[in-house]
Amino acid sequence: MRLATDPSTDPAHYGFVHRVRVRFAETDAMGIVHHAAYLPYLEEARVAYLDAVGHPYASVRAEGIDFAVLEAFVRYLAPLRFDDRVDVHLAVASTTRATFQLAYLLTVDGSPRSTGVTVHGCVDPTGRPVRMPGWLRELGTAAG
Amino acid sequence: MRLATDPSTDPAHYGFVHRVRVRFAETDAMGIVHHAAYLPYLEEARVAYLDAVGHPYASVRAEGIDFAVLEAFVRYLAPLRFDDRVDVHLAVASTTRATFQLAYLLTVDGSPRSTGVTVHGCVDPTGRPVRMPGWLRELGTAAG
Amino acid sequence: MRLATDPSTDPAHYGFVHRVRVRFAETDAMGIVHHAAYLPYLEEARVAYLDAVGHPYASVRAEGIDFAVLEAFVRYLAPLRFDDRVDVHLAVASTTRATFQLAYLLTVDGSPRSTGVTVHGCVDPTGRPVRMPGWLRELGTAAG
Amino acid sequence: MRLATDPSTDPAHYGFVHRVRVRFAETDAMGIVHHAAYLPYLEEARVAYLDAVGHPYASVRAEGIDFAVLEAFVRYLAPLRFDDRVDVHLAVASTTRATFQLAYLLTVDGSPRSTGVTVHGCVDPTGRPVRMPGWLRELGTAAG
Question: Pick from A70, B62, C51, C101: CA 20 to 30 A from residue B104's CA?
Fold first, then answer.
């Protein structure tokens, strides 16, 4: 397992936040958000983060780079429910030459509901690993 | 992180296997199965496993017990593609008084594609923790 | 088929609009949004519409009413792609004593991409039909 | 609306059947299968049907043809629930030079739960319409 971080439950440890609103389609018969629905929330926050740092994912992809997901981890602390406004806090946890790791904290009204980590590698459209862009390595350095 | 296991990539280490077939709806614009689609595969394998050990999840739920997901981890080793027949190997990795942990290996034609771990707690229909059924604790003991 | 409307492709025929942004998770291996992902867009627009008319769906449900989907229709005019900002235009197409019908138009930068219709009935938490609330019948009348 | 058929609720009117089993992930907070989850069931049945007639969709795609969805309609007659074994009955309803239409009936233990129709066009990998393969036109003729 490459996962190096145990994500903080303190929003102050995250430099970026993106709000999602729970869809009814994302709930399950337990009356709460299904555990698989969290990963698209993390992904949506990643995409919003890339926008915020001036490298929209659509233009990254247009340049021939995809961010493959190598590992994903979610801890479910307290349920999310239909219509919750969820703040997805995001931080670049670390980078290596070929991979980067993001940490997430999900809160509703400031109260922690979930944490997560995703590990990514840069690949070309055929799925072969490629070198990470310089701006991405710098985000990791800045985060350190 | 409660996750204790680093799941084996050797199918021989798993006592149960369930086959799923990749739906087109589960692919994404990278041409491979989206990373969030793996969690329902693991869930489907859990449900099939509970059938196999004589405790179908529908009857577990009818007795007032849900298996809340506390943590989930997936490692993506090689992509899955549309129409792949995926063998989801499953083992009970460990149990405590209140939680149990399952390990997974996904293979296609015997070749490892992904591993995963899920950690579960028993809850009542309102989400409150309840004692784990005896048969479930025994599955963990047998697995040890 | 109860569907009575052939939804207009002119945004001026719709009194409400809600924007969604395409998630990467919603794309498929054809590189476009999977056709099943449109229904949650329509649902999200319905929920936003109910907010806008002062009857949030969460409070409707708290009063013991669910809006069961009886029929759904989508016409796909032109593909949606990752990161598209999609304007979901919505109009109450008609109401009967027990059901109501919504029409939808999806546009990107003003250009039509899809139309849709959903037909709903009011049910209690056990799924039995119940009388439609007065405010909902009035929305239909106003729309007429 | 191109939809020409009002699908029969009699399984005898369908020449093909494919069984799916409801995943927990497909349920929603109403305790039933979410209405958007039906479209992947229809898709899975289409893929199984193409296998059965000797033209697996993966090989159709390898020959440069995708079956774009032009329209989709679902009528929800009675809910589906977690773990239901759903028989998806399928028939080729009609074909034109450029499109074909499939009708579906979903039953559980022989009891109708849903009907549906999908309309498809043949497109190349860039999404441009292409001529329908001969074997596909013949399936429609046989069905007529």
Answer: B62
